Design the sequence.
């Protein structure tokens, strides 16, 4: 927050209530990344563009998608920055976003891929691989050997120790489901998931909840995105991260311009800004360890090295489509959910 | 009486001719017209008609002018009133119709009818339109009273009209937007079969868990939880209310604070604290495991965890409702009972307790509904125990958005509330519970029988101790580096949230200041409005008779029963487009709080007002006061505790509610809770808890301030308790 803004807050608490005056240049951003990263982006953008005011609020991707759907036709938001790519792709599919027309030549392949499959409506800004984390203390206490592969998770010794989100509510868990299908083939994937389900103590609603529970020892093992686990481990929790031996899937965080944005020029400026190497390199300052999409951006030491992880060739076009999604989730409800305890 | 009517007509016409009809870019309150009256968007209704060819605005104006003409005609009064009412209805409906039909993108029906000017559409209604509609409404209600309805009392009909219209516009209108989706076919179009197949699905009503099956349907889970919480909080609330009014326990003041703190706690904090205390690696769990060898388990995640957290969160609400009621029970009745040789237990069981029935029923109803709508606790502690509120949230924001399912689940939730509501009415019946009369009433409250007293102490003291432990853990958590792992002392969280830089004047550099000020401003604006509307509604419900009263009562309860998520999304759907465009402003936040929290004002008010003898009003009316004066001079002063409860509660809820506002906050108007939730999601528990602690202190200060301002009502009887004074 700038000092001018805070002074204004003090002198005019009631003024904020009574007015909503439009400034000369402003850009309305919904940020679906972590709050400190959001703040960093807003401050850096304002520092470079003193005439443009960044109006930013943080909301999760699901909430954002619900909001821009309800606001379609008269959007109050210009840019949607951050958050996992699936909802961005759905927004593109539903024609809620518009092509940004930015140059993507400096970006890595997976980021350009997002751009291509959405007809330029969304661009990749970071990637994060799916992984498994375990609480060292809990597993030592119980004398359980840590898992190294996805298939290890079916071992009965993990009974009641695994936590993973429900793919109906969480994009993270859907990525896991789609990864399994792509790794093992559909039938085998569901058989494995049902098998693992016997060890699952609860299917949480939120995708980041399992790793937080594992960090505190509320569960022994969690499945989720590695960069979230890295953050928890760097905070001091006894969490060890495993990149499964069979290979793993990943998410691509994205940025989109909302269709009919009131400030299209500033919005485009924001997207270009967000794709720049020097800006992406600053993410680790705020404890965000995703892998940046600009090939020239620096990768933090803590970031899970994507080149060392066996990444599958994740098919976003197929598994991001609503139809596939509905079919896979219906089967999950029928075959995997009832298998849990 | 006629003068009032004329005054409203003139106000309406002035509003039409002077104030900007539309909402301008600079906001609802803009005074731009006064400077620049001819610009299209900030023009008054009159200018819009003649300069911008928006001829359709002429019709509402014409009908108000018609009212003036009718008043000049020599007609029989009743006929005149009927004519005026008709014209006012015409003005109102035309005002609404033109707004609904001609939206931002032009007319939605009969495009050829509206002409050139309409095709470019029109923005949302502004202050001019608002003033006009309000005046037309009051013209209507006044004329209705002239017809002899509402005992010819323009104040009563006006109040009914105002509240009904507000509830229609801000509750029914948005909620319809979402309920309609329950009937929507996937490809477009509507069919009842969609609703039927969704509503009777087994995942909603499945009872198999009762017969050893895996899991019950979400509705069954919710009912089970809500009944348990409703009963539990009512019993605990009653125990606390008796404890505070009827015993002489020394440290009452301190305990009183403990009973209030849970409702002023932002969501997630209680759940988080419970995990750290009772979770598998929680402090108390570890302690019990070391000491007694109790196996560490995950019992907290599921029904028991949610129930535990809800009991902690909602007992104070039951307590707030019940304390006014327990205080209000007339000592004379209890003395009479004892004079007739009843013992303390009999007095309590057969006199005091039955007189508390409205309070008990209201407390249960609130606990039940609160539990149904609760979102934060099931989210954090739910485990595999699915309830309606979280299911609805994820039907809207989940990885597959299914608005039809959300609408069906929301409908189910409404149905449950309606059932509880009817059950409560049946139980209360038509008995009288009035105990505050105009008569001298100087007895002593009966002391509690030893058994009841033991029960109260046995329940309240351990509960208070538990609350104290939970909260000291929270304070502790805000001062350590990483709660649960690194317990070295730090003030870092507070500095990051609320840092102030004095080096160059005063600069609020902390990250939380922005949302903190917004939150305070908005809740301060919402609280008095909520209390006012809530108590006015209570007055109408208890004191006035009119057609459709039960429907009216249910309508006012509706917004409370609908989960916040549904309210939030339906508000965007309804108020993002003309005629009423409020998204992105602070007004929408204030409105959502007022109408969501109004039911508590209503319930508290109804409970308190049922105890005021009607002869008080009658005395006042007989002495020539009108109903407005009666409300102001007689009823309002006796409603102190109810008013306090309503004010406190709405202020607090505006600060702590999360699910409704999460969709409505914008960058300019961000609320503390949505800010805190973001931090919790990022795992910054210390920061989130530090912010919550500051909010708790702020609210506590506000509550004490309010208590000081409003004070206790004086019933001309000292709140003496037999035996207590001597002790």
Sequence:
């Amino acid at each position: 927050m700038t000092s001018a803004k805070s002074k204004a807050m003090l002198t005019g608490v009631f003024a904020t209530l009574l007015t909503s005056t439009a400034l000369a240049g402003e850009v309305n951003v919904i940020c679906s990344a972590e709050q400190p990263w959001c703040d960093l982006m807003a401050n850096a953008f304002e520092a470079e563009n003193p005439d443009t005011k960044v109006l930013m609020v943080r909301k999760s991707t699901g909430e954002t998608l619900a909001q821009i759907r309800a606001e379609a036709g008269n959007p109050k938001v210009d840019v949607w920055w951050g958050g996992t790519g699936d909802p961005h792709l759905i927004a593109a599919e539903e024609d809620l976003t518009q092509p940004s027309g930015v140059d993507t030549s400096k970006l890595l392949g997976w980021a350009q891929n997002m751009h291509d499959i959405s007809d330029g409506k969304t661009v990749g800004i970071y990637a994060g691989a799916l992984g498994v984390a375990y609480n060292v203390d809990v597993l030592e206490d119980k004398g359980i050997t840590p898992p190294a592969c996805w298939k290890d998770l079916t071992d009965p010794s993990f009974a009641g120790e695994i936590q993973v989100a429900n793919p109906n509510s969480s994009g993270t868990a859907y990525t896991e489901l789609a990864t399994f299908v792509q790794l093992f083939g559909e039938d085998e994937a569901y058989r494995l998931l049902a098998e693992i389900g016997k060890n699952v103590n609860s299917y949480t609603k939120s995708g980041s909840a399992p790793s937080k529970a594992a960090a505190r020892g509320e569960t022994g093992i969690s499945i989720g995105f590695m960069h979230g686990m890295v953050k928890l481990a760097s905070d001091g929790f006894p969490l060890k991260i495993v990149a499964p031996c069979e290979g793993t899937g990943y998410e691509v965080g994205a940025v989109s311009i909302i269709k009919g944005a009131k400030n299209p020029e500033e919005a485009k400026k924001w997207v270009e800004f967000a794709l720049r190497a020097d800006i992406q390199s600053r993410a680790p300052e705020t404890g965000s360890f995703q892998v940046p999409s600009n090939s020239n951006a620096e990768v933090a030491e803590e970031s899970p090295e994507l080149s060392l992880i066996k990444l599958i060739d994740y098919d976003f076009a197929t598994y991001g489509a609503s139809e596939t999604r509905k079919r896979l989730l219906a089967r999950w409800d029928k075959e995997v959910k009832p298998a849990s305890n | 009486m006629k003068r009032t009517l004329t005054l409203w007509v003139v106000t309406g016409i002035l509003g039409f001719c002077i104030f900007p009809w539309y909402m301008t870019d600079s906001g609802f309150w803009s005074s731009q017209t006064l400077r620049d009256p001819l610009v299209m968007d900030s023009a008054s209704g009159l200018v819009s008609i003649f300069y911008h060819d928006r001829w359709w605005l002429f019709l509402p104006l014409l009908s108000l002018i018609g009212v003036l003409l009718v008043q000049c005609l020599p007609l029989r009064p009743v006929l005149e009133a009927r004519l005026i009412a008709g014209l006012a209805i015409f003005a109102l409906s035309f005002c609404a119709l033109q707004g609904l039909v001609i939206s931002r993108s032009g007319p939605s029906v009969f495009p050829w009818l509206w002409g050139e000017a309409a095709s470019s559409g029109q923005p949302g209604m502004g202050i001019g339109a608002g003033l006009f509609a309000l005046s037309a409404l009051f013209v209507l209600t006044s004329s209705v009273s002239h017809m002899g309805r509402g005992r010819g009392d323009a104040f009563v009909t006006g109040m009914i009209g105002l509240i009904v219209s507000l509830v229609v516009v801000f509750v029914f209108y948005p909620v319809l937007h979402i309920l309609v989706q329950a009937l929507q076919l996937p490809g477009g179009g509507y069919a009842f079969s969609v609703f039927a197949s969704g509503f009777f699905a087994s995942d909603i009503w499945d009872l198999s868990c009762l017969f050893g099956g895996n899991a019950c349907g979400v509705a069954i889970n919710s009912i089970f939880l809500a009944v348990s919480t409703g009963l539990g909080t009512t019993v605990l609330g009653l125990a606390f209310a008796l404890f505070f009014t009827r015993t002489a326990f020394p440290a009452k003041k301190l305990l009183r604070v403990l009973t209030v703190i849970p409702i002023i706690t932002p969501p997630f904090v209680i759940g988080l604290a419970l995990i750290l205390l009772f979770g598998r690696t929680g402090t108390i769990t570890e302690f019990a495991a070391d000491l007694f060898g109790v196996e560490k388990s995950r019992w907290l995640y599921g029904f028991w965890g949610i129930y535990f957290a809800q009991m902690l969160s909602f007992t104070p609400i039951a307590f707030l409702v019940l304390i006014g009621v327990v205080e209000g029970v007339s000592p004379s009745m209890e003395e009479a009972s004892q004079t007739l040789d009843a013992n303390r237990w009999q007095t309590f069981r057969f006199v005091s307790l039955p007189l508390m029935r409205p309070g008990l029923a209201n407390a249960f109803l609130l606990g039940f509904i609160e539990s149904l709508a609760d979102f934060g606790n099931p989210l954090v502690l739910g485990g595999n125990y699915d309830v309606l509120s979280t299911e609805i949230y994820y039907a809207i924001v989940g990885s597959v958005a299914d608005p039809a399912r959300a609408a069906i689940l929301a409908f189910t939730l409404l149905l449950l509330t309606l059932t509880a509501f009817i059950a409560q009415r049946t139980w209360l019946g038509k008995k009288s519970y009035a105990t505050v009369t105009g008569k001298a009433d100087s007895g002593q409250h009966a002391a509690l029988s030893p058994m009841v007293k033991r029960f109260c102490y046995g329940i309240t003291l351990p509960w208070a101790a538990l609350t104290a432990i939970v909260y000291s853990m929270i304070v502790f958590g805000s001062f350590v580096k990483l709660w649960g792992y690194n317990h070295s002392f730090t003030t870092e969280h507070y500095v990051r949230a609320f840092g102030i830089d004095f080096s160059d004047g005063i600069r609020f550099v902390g990250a939380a200041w922005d949302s903190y000020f917004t939150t305070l401003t908005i809740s301060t604006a919402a609280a008095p409005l909520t209390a006012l509307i809530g108590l006015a509604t209570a007055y109408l419900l208890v004191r006035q008779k009119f057609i459709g009263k039960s429907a009216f009562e249910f309508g006012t309860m509706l917004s409370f029963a609908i989960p916040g998520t549904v309210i939030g999304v339906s508000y965007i759907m309804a108020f993002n487009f003309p005629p009423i465009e409020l998204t992105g402003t602070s007004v929408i936040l204030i409105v959502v709080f007022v109408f969501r929290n109004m039911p508590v004002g209503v319930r508290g008010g109804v409970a308190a007002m049922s105890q005021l003898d009607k002869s008080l009003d009658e005395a006042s009316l007989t002495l020539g006061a009108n109903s407005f004066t009666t409300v102001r001079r007689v009823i309002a002063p006796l409603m102190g505790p109810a008013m306090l409860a309503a004010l406190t509660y709405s202020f607090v809820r505006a600060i702590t509610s999360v699910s409704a506002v999460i969709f409505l906050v914008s960058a300019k108007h961000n609320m503390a809770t949505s800010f805190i939730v973001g931090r919790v999601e990022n795992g910054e528990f210390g920061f989130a808890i530090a912010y919550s602690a500051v909010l708790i202190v702020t609210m506590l200060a506000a509550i004490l301030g309010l208590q000081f301002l409003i004070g206790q009502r004086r019933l001309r009887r000292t709140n003496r308790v037999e035996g207590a004074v001597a002790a």
